[in-house]
Write a structure and sequence with these properties.
CATH topology: Porin
Membrane topology: Multi-pass membrane protein
Number of helices: 5
CATH class: Mainly Beta
Family: Belongs to the OmpP1/FadL family.
Structural class: mainly beta
Subcellular location: Cell outer membrane
Radius of gyration: 22 Å
Helix content: under 10%
Number of domains: 1
Order of helices and strands: EEHHHEEEEEEEEHEEHEEEEE
CATH architecture: Beta Barrel
Pfam families: Toluene_X
Number of strands: 17
Keywords: Cell outer membrane, Membrane, Signal, Transmembrane, Transmembrane beta strand
Strand content: over 45%
Length: 426
């Protein structure tokens, strides 16, 4: 039995069927712009630098701040992004034969679908659901950087994460709303071509080349959205750390026998309606990568006698990051809205941790965006956007231990994305 929502004039919205389709697609993202998190949700926010904590524009805003459901109205948005990363590594000064330049672009491009629906139930209560990619990591080296160590075949990883967020928002006072979303996460992971490192694992059989494994978990996201006068909005959100279950087929790779939780994140934002035509906004976000062992533990623990897969075992060595975003929305005419934005994040990968991050070079820092929306009919619009994140390189410093032949591993990443969405006010 399938549940459906209904719009005005009895229009049937088979959102459950759409949700199942998008969940099955399990979008892949390759080292997205906020570490491995995506830089935004929804085509309109992505065109404005990812700003949306206090500047909601479409139904996908509830996947960042659930309180925005009170501002969206009755709305459905469905979009898709074409994401093209340029990632790779170079190794120099290695006595074991690793030296060379390596491209991790064996898999491109990536298709990232997303959808959300919001419906007011009264003047004080609104509900909705959003389905979107959280982010991910992907590299595919056709020439294996670790072949001289004895690795065979291509090398790389593929992490995919999708979030399903049922949402309820409540107006606590005029101009002030709160919201909550239980967050259901589905994720998959695959690693190949890392055979030599399995010798340093407590479970070598479950380290690499075991195909795609899946896990799931549940967390919570809460949010607030308020108005100060008629022109200023402020907002905040908190998303809990999500215990996403273990990747059993990679219990010898990730710390805590295959654990790969999703780190907590939180942030706040503001927007100002500067004129009837222009709105500007800014967001700040913090992502606590270091609180997840498999992501935050440094590789150094390996040389202190703690193997891969153990509690406290080696990870990617990522540190926590701060993310800042600014964006502008300009209503050029009743039918045309233009957007632009910029985002800047810390680099999560220390120079000493670049060796393992050959597999996951999530080092992009800045991204520039442009977007536009055209109204195409009664309550309907089409939105397009483009994003460019220039190449960022992290040059290793003490990154390859002497026992592995020494030298340095440098990693780099650049990104380009374009997207299109269809929105319908119901």
């Amino acid at each position: 039995m399938s549940l459906s929502f209904f719009g005005h004039n009895g229009r049937r919205l088979p959102f459950t069927a759409l949700a199942i389709t998008l969940a099955a697609a399990a979008p892949t993202a390759a080292n997205a712009t906020d570490g491995y998190f995506l830089n935004g949700a929804g085509a309109k926010a992505k065109g404005a630098g990812g700003v949306e904590i206090a500047m909601p524009q479409d139904a996908l805003a509830i996947s960042v701040n659930p309180a925005t459901a009170m501002e969206i109205g009755h709305r459905l948005d469905v979009g898709v992004e074409i994401f093209v990363p340029d990632r790779g590594a170079s190794i120099s000064g290695n006595a074991a034969g690793l030296d060379g330049k390596y491209s991790g672009n064996g898999a491109n491009p990536f298709v990232l679908p997303e959808a959300a629906y919001v419906r007011p139930l009264s003047d004080r209560l609104a509900v909705g659901i959003a389905i979107n990619g959280n982010g991910g990591m992907n590299t595919h080296y056709k020439t294996n950087p670790f072949a001289s160590f004895g690795a065979s075949g291509p090398a790389g990883v593929n992490l995919r994460q999708i979030m399903i967020s049922p949402t309820a928002a409540y107006k606590v006072a005029q101009g002030h709303s709160v919201g909550v979303s239980p967050v259901i996460v589905l994720q998959s992971f695959k690693m190949h071509g890392a055979q030599p490192f399995a010798a340093y694992s407590q479970d070598p059989e479950n380290f690499t080349n075991n195909g795609t494994d899946w896990s799931a978990g549940v967390g919570v996201r809460v949010g607030y959205l308020g108005s100060i006068g008629e022109s200023v909005k402020i907002g905040a959100f908190y998303q809990s750390k999500i215990n996403a279950g273990d990747f059993d087929d990679y219990a010898g790779l990730f710390a805590e026998k295959g654990g790969f939780d999703i780190p907590a994140s939180w942030g706040f934002g503001a927007s100002v309606k500067a004129s009837d035509a222009l709105t500007v906004g800014a967001d700040y976000k913090r992502i606590d990568y270091s609180d997840v062992q498999s992501v935050g533990n440094p590789v150094d623990s390996l040389f202190q006698g703690v193997p891969f897969g153990a509690d406290g075992g080696p990870g990617f060595g990522w540190r926590d990051i701060d993310v800042w975003k600014v964006g502008a929305i300009y209503r050029a005419s009743p039918a045309l809205t233009l957007r632009a934005g910029y985002g800047r994040s810390d680099n999560p990968v220390p120079r000493s941790q670049t060796l393992l991050n050959v597999f996951a070079p999530g080092v992009v820092r800045g991204h520039y965006t442009l977007g536009a929306t055209v109204k195409i009919g009664d309550g309907a619009d089409v939105t397009a956007y483009a994003m460019r994140a220039p190449r960022q390189t992290v040059r290793g410093s003490g990154s390859i231990p002497a026992s592995f032949g020494g030298g340095e591993a440098d990693v780099y990443l650049a990104e380009t994305a374009v997207g299109l969405s269809f929105g319908l006010s119901l």
